[in-house]
Amino acid sequence: MCLAIPARVVSVDADDMATVALEGIRKPVSTALLEDVTVGDYVLVHVGYALHKLSEEEAERTLRLMAEAGVLADELEELAADASAEATS
Amino acid sequence: MKYVSEFRDGSLARKLASAIAKEARSDRVYHLMEFCGGHTHAIFRYGVQDLVPENVNFVHGPGCPVCVLPVRRLDDAIELALHHDVILCTYGDMMRVPGTKQKSLIKAKAEGADIRMVYSTQDVLKIARENRGREVVFFAIGFETTTPPTAVALLQAKAEGLTNFSVFCNHVLTPPAITHIVRAPVEPGETPVRIDGFLGPSHVSSIIGSEPYEPAARDFRKPVVIAGFEPLDVMQSTLMLIRQINEGRHEVENQYTRVVTREGNRKAQDIVASVLELRREFEWRGLGTVPESALKIREGFSEFDAEKRFTISAKQSREVKSCECPAVLRGVKKPTDCKLFGTTCTPENPVGACMVSSEGACAAYWTYGRKRAAGAVPRGAAA
Amino acid sequence: MSEHERSSGPASGTVDMTHGGGGRAMADLIEDLFHRHLKNPVLDQGHDAAVLEMPSGRLVVSTDAHVVSPLFFPGGDIGSLSVHGTLNDVAMAGARPLSLTASFILEEGFPLADLERIVISMANAAREARVPVVSGDTKVVEKGKGDGVFITTTGIGVLADGVSISPMRAKPGQAVLISGSIGDHGVAILSKRENLEFETEICSDSAALHGLVGDLIEAVPGISVLRDPTRGGLATALNEIAHASGVGVVLNEEAIPVRADVAAACELLGLDPLYVANEGKLVCICDAADAARLLEIMHAHPLGQQAAQIGQVIEDNDHMVVMQTGFGGARVVDWLSGEQLPRIC
N or C terminus of chain C: which is more exposed, having fewer CB within 10 Å? Predict the structure, then answer.
């Protein structure tokens, strides 16, 4: 449910509205559900409303964690491979 | 697309897939319910099932507001459109859902009802402003993500004195539904649904926060991971759930930290609370009557309540008897367990909502599951 | 100066029931708008029926009704669309289009200035394509019984010997090619309908493809399938072909060209580009050995710059179209049931 997409605020307009941009597309959205929306913020857009700001810091951190999950798995695999190699040598 | 494409990256997917494969214990099966229909859609659309081991099962939950809307309410909306000379505004998702006797909004439109598809409640307000001589009714559906936009529209309508605007309110709530599923008594002849953990909804949680899931996790001892919307989020959340299950933990964890906080969007919550309030109970398709699981319009805004403004007749609303949507919605039956699946009930001629909605389990199974049943989907066979 | 001569300014006023009546008002409308802009030797003969030379080869005929709304959109209008659409239908059979007919159903009250704009657009499209409109008809319906204007065009073409193109001819092992990016037309239409604003406008890709088709067939007369993925998009076209040929198709998501702004618009609207209409693209299924040559020809043509190989045909008794996602898993790309509607969920 709830198709929502992050888009960048390019202008803050009157009457609780703002314009967001996504790949060259500009769309007016309502900011009635948020406070202090500024140009450059990333917001989550759902049915024409900005629902929440997106934390860029957290986005980067999440991507890092994902990359690390793989690394840890690879390391574990290597350790296991080494252990069995030793056992059979 | 920034903050979208990165979370669909294939190489990170492989890393997470290998991490999941390592940590999923081979001596057990993991039944993970993705509550949210959007997650069901993501799982099928990106083929996430292919990237997790066989013993990790996604159980499709009832988080599809289209699927859980009882037939009676859809019949009421169709009646409003056909017999009360209103302009009925609706999101696209509802247009093809079959009501009693397979009537739908799209069929009603063909019969002459003035039914208009909108993207936003702002569009509805615009239509109401431009058609002051007509009644304009908004068919409001959705979980907590979609509710604040309805609330804002009601506030704006009141401020502007848009007396020809009203809302037919069918907003429902997520945490009571989760509780209800876990507690649901087993119908005769059914195997109880086995759920080891929940993938919590992404955008509902952006509004309500992660806190409301804590009682369910604690009381039912099931882990909940609030999962982001993109396929990498689903995979990372799956990994987090598997870890919790392995370690015997049952906490609420937040994977979608770039958007979800513990308290959620307080302003949105307050706006909703100022305009809408809890119904004592509400009938859900598939789950039956669930207490305190839906919202209605407050007294102070009752002039915008379509249920008060129009006399909607009592009806004999009927779902088709052999339609197994109710059981499918609870995760108790698979779409293929339904006699009508693929024969009488297809996406072209849907009998139940689960086949119409792009994230209904039946629709998802129709496109994806048939292939898996017929034989392995060819991997690496692409040009 | 004849008594019928009109000033050459833009038409004013609206269509009314007298225009469909077959009388004087009708003759003037036809003369003024249609003949003036669609001028060609056959049309100028003034008969209802066009007399044409019989070409050598097999005759190909195709007809299409055009009911697009809105009538005017970025990159075209119902006029140019009706010309391109039918020319493409003829071309997808491997035929060279020779002539077109056009019939108009006009709604009472439709502004003549808009009608003139549409006819001029048709004339330009036909002229660029070098295919004349040789016969036409006009009817008027009461207000409320039409959507402004409906246009039906029929195209006649000639198919050379040795060319046998059919949706039933796809075979396992063959390559699936697309001539360019998908989803442009449908998004352009929807953006206009729903008042989405665009920094750089997404334009319809409406175009006549018969020139490109001619080049392709000349290089590889043995092409198996050609199809323009219009309503229902690429997914529907491929499903139809898979079904007709009794095969399966495997697609590579990362190879399918989609413009970034079209992809973004689809995300915002809740649409899948695979199911969005195209009006200036073609799918070509050919032997794997011919793929590189055909791609080279497409790249050299203005309408094929983004051409790519997007998949291959496989054996499959279920006749399914399956796609390897960029993400790593596979998904089934099914028939579209009805019109794709935007989703909030």
Answer: N
